[in-house]
Design a protein that fits this description.
Helices cover 19% and strands 42% of the residues. The chain is built from two helices and four strands. Strands 1, 2, 3 and 4 form a four-stranded antiparallel sheet that branches. The protein is globular. The chain has 80 residues and is of the alpha+beta class.
Amino acid sequence: EVGKEMYIVNRGRLQVVADNGKTVLATLKPGSYFGEISILNMGTAGNRRTASVRSVGYSDLFCLSKQDLWDVLKEYPAAR
């Protein structure tokens, strides 16, 4: 899947899971974030997602689109 946004965990717990959907690689808690690699094109996969994330119960997330991020960086170039 092509990533066009990153997410910041506001409330809840999420799990980063392996391709088999069973192995938990990491647990994300409030303040954690994911999806940044795909919107910044930091990996060898270009802007494709590198992992799957699932919620453990109810979660509340903030979403930052790639376009919004680049708009902010244009306005505040020192943040680069």
